[in-house]
Amino acid sequence: MTGNQKLNAWINEIAALCAPRSVHLCDGSQAEYDSLASEMVKGGTFVKLDGKLRPNSYLCRSDPADVARTEDRTFICARSQDEAGPTNNWRAPAEMKAELTRVFRNCMQGRTMYVIPFSMGPIGSPISHIGIEITDSPYVVANMRIMTRMGREVLDALGAGDFVPCLHSVGAPLNSGQADVPWPCNAKSKYIVHFPEERSIWSYGSGYGGNALLGKKCFALRIASVMARDQGWLAEHMLILGLTPPSGKTIYIAAAFPSACGKTNLAMMNPTLPGWKVSCVGDDIAWMKFGADGRLYAINPESGFFGVAPGTSMQSNPNAVKTLVKNCIFTNVAMTPEGDVWWEDFTKAPPQKLIDWQGKQWEASSGRKAAHPNARFTAPVNQCPVVDPNYDNPQGVPISAILFGGRRPSVIPLVFEAFNWAHGTFLGSIQSSETTAAQTGAVGIVRRDPMAMLPFCGYNMGDYLAHWLQVGRETSPASLPKIFYVNWFRKSGEGKWLWPGYGENSRVLKWIYERVTGTGQAVETPIGYLPSASALDAKDLAVSREDLRELLRVDREGWLKEIPDIRSHYAKLGDRLPQELLDELARLERRLAEKT
Ligand code: O2Y
Ligand code: MN
């Protein structure tokens, strides 16, 4: 047992409820990881990849019915439905707790119950928080060891302190003598449940990603967003990068984009501008607290990347590919005959004789995907060739700029700057993106996703936006990050990309750097500050003057056409939406209608 009474009591309570065969308190050691991995190889859950091509790395194939987060089975069980708000599934907490208690009874029969102490953020940092995940999945333990700081050191740091209890079961008890399957899960019943008042998580039936690695979306976003509201900080769905100009002084930028907008690519991009460097603090989540100087300091609460594999290549993201050379877990990718991994677009042509993500022989002519579109790599952040030197700094990094953005072929310019924090909050609240073929549903539909937090906000979205406005009142305007809106995805009328993206995005980051440090030139427009004609560095850029003008044009008519959609988006967020945001919308409409 541990030195923490609350933890000991909880372990006993859950062991009594779930009836596992044994209990294992994880120490986080390499030996423990190796032993779990070899057990999983024996059981068929893991395939060991070739030791020379991909040292200490494993392939895992999930059940085909358990391949992604299940938002329709994700619940915020706040005291009242109003507290959860119109964007979350809600059930009364007592009712849900009673139902889950029935569902979890004896659910770990025949399995080991693992107890995982983990720290979200550097151990001991004033910005970090500790969780304990109880799970019956060794796959979860192995992934949590990469994605979080995990094990004995965390228990030592916890002492008699408090933690977020995170209970997980694959929901597949084994009767005596019953053989296990490589990916146990429950096809009929899934629950991803958050109790924000008691700050606890119960997850049942899925072993995949965000459903099961409870430190990530469940704790670091849904529960942490509630903690952040109550304690005056921000838990956000944001990458964090360092940006260093040739002159050498690094600034830090956080950025929130909806999925399929290249978040991981931007987080570790190679700038094309000579002498400029991007360094990676994190690719998915940022926790930001005020420092003594009144500035916001951010940590990446995670220690790993759980990135989408398909589309990741030496062309799109060479630093991700280099991160994946060893010590990784690959889920639902294809395997080569040599014992290496492959996925769509990893190389121009697929290798011969691939085994697909379901373990079947694969031919390009079959028309099937070799890797599942949501196939993932789990990789340690500290293997990234451009990891930021402050990635592990317990003080965090001071944030100078926050970016919002999305995938919009028209209307939204390449970059513009908010007038102030409240206006920036407004821009984040109306952030929009068009759906792509890689996502489910129709292609080209504009979806609004405030701060990219729609599936991850653990309370009422109106209150969340009010919290953002409140954060802006907590310090001097000069201490706050400047807020920008970017759109790398503009197209011409003929459907041609207007902006090359990838490393060329460093030109936009350079202007942002200059705005932050006080030298960047801008013009005031109805939507915000835009780079003046010569302010964006276009040296050696393969974009015509005409296209550049289009990228930086304010399309008044297009913006005016957006207004009714923004109104109906706001109506869907309910009556807790701050009046200040409606006022911002009215001001935008007025400015757009004014003659210049
Ligand atoms: O499908 C999953 O479980 C993964 S979702 C995910 C993983 C890493 C980073 N972001 C996300 C997301 O959905 O935003
Ligand atoms: Mn994400």
Uncertain segments of ≥5 residues (pLDDT<50)?
A: none
Instruction: Name the structural class.
Output: alpha+beta
Report the mean per-residue pLDDT as an integer: 97
Largest sheet: 9 strands, mixed
Helix content: 25-40%
Q: Strand percentage, roughly?
A: 15-25%
Shape: globular
Q: What small-molecule ligands were found?
A: 3-[(carboxymethyl)sulfanyl]pyridine-2-carboxylic acid, manganese (II) ion
Distance between the termini: 72 Å
**Structural Rg:** 24 Å
Number of strands: 30
What count of helical segments does DSSP give? 16
Architecture overview:
The longest helix has 17 residues, at 215-231. 28% of the residues lie in helices and 21% in strands. The strands form seven sheets. Strands 11, 12, 13, 14, 15, 16, 24, 25 and 28 form a nine-stranded mixed β-sheet that branches. With 596 residues, the chain is an alpha+beta fold. The radius of gyration is 24 Å and the shape is globular. Helix 11 (421-429) packs across helix 16. The chain is built from 16 helices and 30 strands. The protein binds 3-[(carboxymethyl)sulfanyl]pyridine-2-carboxylic acid and manganese (II) ion (MN). Manganese (II) ion binds next to loops.
